[in-house]
Design goal:
By secondary structure, this protein is an all-alpha fold. Helices cover 63% and strands 0% of the residues. The protein has one domain.
Length: 79
């Protein structure tokens, strides 16, 4: 096992058991990316963004595009 994998295992062992399922989901998504050596950088970014799609609140998806700008505006309007 490489040093990097050993470090990853140490980090994984420090995560509470009830939270590990989220890490497993992330790793499954990343495993799919690593199996395709010919994947382009743009494709990998699109694939990575879709990993959490099943957790998305469909009622909020239409508001995603402007969410960051609105949050920043609210932060500075309140100061």
């Amino acid at each position: 096992m490489t040093k990097v994998k050993e470090q990853a295992m140490e980090l994984l062992q420090s995560i509470p058991d009830d939270k590990v399922i989220y890490i497993i989901d992330i790793l499954r998504g990343l495993k799919g990316l690593s199996n395709n050596d010919n994947i382009s950088e743009q494709d990998s970014a699109q694939s990575a963004m879709g990993i959490f799609n099943k957790y998305a609140n469909t009622d909020l998806i239409s508001m995603e595009k402007d969410a960051w700008g609105k949050a920043v505006a609210e932060k500075y309007d309140n100061n």
